[in-house]
C-alpha cells in the first residue's frame, strides 16, 4: 500500500520531467540518426553501455583489487588489472560486433490490425556477427516488442523479418528498428535504433459476419444476398496447394514443408490458392448497422476472404469507390482505402 | 540459416529469460568448476572435496538421465539440440543443504581458521550454485564465483607456473559466457577469440601494474596458516643438520653490482644469546616477555644512534626475495639497513618483518660489510652474553679456565680454540653421532663429529666460560649463483650457525668455527663428501647426485629457476618502493634528456593513436585492395615507359596501353574495369571478392608477361 502511494507520488513528481527528457532525447536521436532506407552503422550511431552484469563485473574486479591489496599479493592485483583491461577490450569487441553492418529496407509493410507482420530488412555484413536482436521500438512501454534474434549473422546478405504487431488502423510510418546485442560476454549492451523511412498500412481487423439478428437481416436484404452468394461461393472453394517458396526468416513454422526439409531439399513453405470466381460487390453504406470500425472490419474480412479465394469484387466507400476487379493489386488498393478511411 | 533466428516474446535485455544450457556449455560448466576447485585442493578439507565431486557427478548423472529420457521421448529435430535443464534437486533440498553446510563450516571454523573457513564457504556456494541455473543471471554468478575461487588460490601459491595456470583458467571461465552468446561457433574459434582478447588486455594491464600506485592494506585480513618453515628460534645441537637435508628454497638475492665472495655471505637471520645448557634461544623469550626497546626501525638514518654501529666502508645494495616461512625472520648481510617501513631491526642487528611472512615477499637492503657492530657494549648486554649454565658441561668449563690461564689476550685464545678444532681430528658431518642430553662435553671431547651448530655452540660456550661475551648466530651461508639471471638462490640446506664474540674496539666479530673444521664449507659450499652424504640422506627421488650430475638437468633446472626468479622479482616482488624508484628514473629521463623523453612519449602516443584509428576505421581498407593493385600496376607499367599522365582518365590510359602494347591490353583492361567498378559502383561483397580475385590474377599475368619481355623471351 505504502509502496503504491510512493510510486504514484514519485511518478507525479517526475512524470513531467521524464516527458520533457524523453522528448529531448527523441529529438536528439532524430537529428543524429535521420531516417533513410539505406543505412550503415558505425561509431556515429552505435550506443554502448555496460549491462547490469557489466557493472557488477567491475565491482567484482574492485573486490579482487582489494583482496590483492590487503594481502599485498601482486599476482591478484595483476589479475584484477587484467580483468579491468579485459572489460575495456570486450567493450571494443562488442562494439565491432555491430559496427559496419549495412541495412537496406525498401519495402513498406501492410497487414491487418491485431496480426503480426514482418518487416523485411536486408542486412549485409562483411564478417560473422553473433547474437543480434531485431525489434521495433514501441511507443507504449507496457508492450514488450517481439524480438527476432540472429544467433549468428553470416557473411553477405541476409534478409531478416522483423516482427511487428499491428495495433492501430491507418497508414503511418514505421517506428525505429532497434538493433541490439549483448554479444561478447553479456558485459555490454550495444544497440542502435534506425528509422528506415518506411510506411506501415494497417488494414482494419477482419471480422466475419455474425449476425443472427433477423431485423438486421431484413434491413439489408440486398447486401445479404450478395454476402450469401459470397458465402456459398466461399464454401465451394477448397484450399488448394499452389506452390512452394523458399523459406523467409520469420515465416510461421506451421507452413514449412517438413517433408522437403527432411529430404534435405532445403527450407520451403507451402502456399495455397483458391480457384473460384463470382461477382461480388461490397458497399459500406449498405452494411448492417454498426460503428464505422465494425463496418470496416466486416469489409476487411470480406475483401480478405474473397482475395484468398481468388474472387473478384467491387467496393464502394462513402468517399470513393473501386470498380469490379480481381487480383492482388486491386485487393491491396481496396484494403489501403479501408485503412486510410 | 533459418535455425539461427529465434523469436522471443521478451526483450533482449532482460536477464530473467528462462535459460536452457546446450550440451557443450553444460560440459564446459562442469569441467571449469572442477578445475576452479582443484586450484584450491591443498587448502580444502577432504570432506568438502568429496562434496564438490559428488555435486559434479550428480549433475553428470542428471544430464545422462534427461538425455536418455529425451531420446526415448522424441526423435525429432529438437531432440538433437536437446537442452539440458539443470534442475536436479528440488529447491527446498538445496536450501537445506545450504543451511546445513554453512552451519558445518561455521562449527568447524575454529579448527579451520578464518581464512580457510571463508574459502570453504565460497567454494560451497560455488558448488551449490551449479544446481540452480535457471536464468541467465545464474550463469553470470557462476562465472564470477568461478573466477573468484580460482583467484583465491593465488593467496597461497604465486609461482609463475601456477599463476599463469590460474590466469588462463580465469579467462577460460569466460568461455561459458562466450559460448552462451554464440553457441554455433566452433570450439577452436571460440578459444582463439578468447586467447586473442586476453592477449589484447595484457598491455593495458601491465601499464596499470607498473603505474598504478601500490596501496598499503586497507584493513587486516586473516592470515594464511601453515607450519613454520626453515630456521627455528630455538636451536639444539642436531637441529640444523636436519634442516640441511631440505632442498627447499629459502630466499633469493640479486646484487646491484658485484656479488661478494662466498665466504662473505653470512646471512644473519637471528641471534640466540640465551643458553640453558641444552638449547639456544633469544634472551627474554624464555620468560615470555617482549623487550620493545630492542626493536628499531631499520632505515639507515636511525641506525647509528639506536643500534650502536659505526658505519665504515662501502655499501652494497641488493634485493632479497624470501619464500613464505610463516615466521618473521628476514635475511641480510651485516650491517643491514632498509628503507621499508614494514621491516624492523633488533638491537642484535637482525632484520625482522612486522608480521608473518605468509607469501613471497621482497625487500631492498643496503649493507655495510665492514661496519663495526656495537663498538661499546652495554652492561646489560655484556651480562647477557656471558651468562652460563655451568652444570651441564663441566669439562668444557674446565678447558675454558685452562685456556684463560694460558692466554691473556682474547684474540690468541680464540685462535687457540680454532686451532684445536682444526687439528683435533674433528669431523664435519651431516650425521653426527647422537650425544646424550645434548651434551656439548660429549661432542667436544668424545664424538668429535658434528654439524655447524655443534661447533658454534661449543665455541660460544667456551668463549663465555673464558669471559668473552659471545653468542650464537643462525642464518644461512652462501647460496648458489644462477649464471643466467645472475642471482643467488639460498636453500634450506644452506642453513648455518656461527658464533659472534665481542672484542673491545672491534665490536662484535664473526667467528665461524666450521671454517676451522671444514674450510671448504665456508669457501665454496658443500664439499664432495658432504654432498655425497646429503644425497644418501635426502630420500628425494631426484637426488642431487643422481640427476644433479647430468648437465642437461642442471641446465633445464637453472633455466626454469631463472624464469621463476624473474617472475618473483618483477611481479611478486614489485613493491611500492620499486614503483617510486621507477617513477624517479622516468622523471630523471624526462628532466635530464628532455628531448629524448618527450620524443619517446610523442612517438608512443602517435603509435597508440595510429593503432586506434586503424581499428576505428570503417573497414574501408577492404575496398582499397583493388585500388592498391591498380596503383601497383601503374607503377609497374611506368617502369616500362608506359606512364599514366595525371590528366588522363583510367579508360583513356587503358586505350593508350591498348595502342602501344596490345599484348598487355586484355589484362590491363580487366584491372582498369575492376578499378572503375570499385571507384564508381557500389559493389556487394561477393562482387567485390570476384573483382579482387580477377584483378590480382591479371596483375600477376601482366607482371609475368613484362618480365618475359624484359628477358627477351617474348615480345
Automatic annotation (TrEMBL), chain A:
The chain crosses the membrane at residues 53-69, 75-96. The keyword Transmembrane applies. Keywords: Membrane, Transmembrane, Transmembrane helix. This is Uncharacterized conserved protein, DUF58 family, contains vWF domain. It comes from Colwellia chukchiensis.
From TrEMBL, chain B:
The keyword Transmembrane applies. It comes from the Bacteria. SMART domains: TGc. Keywords: Membrane, Transmembrane, Transmembrane helix. The chain crosses the membrane at residues 21-41, 47-64, 88-108, 114-132, 139-157, 163-181, 193-212, 596-615. Pfam families: DUF4129, TgpA_N, Transglut_core. Residues 444-515 form the Transglutaminase-like domain. This is Transglutaminase-like domain-containing protein. It comes from Colwellia chukchiensis.
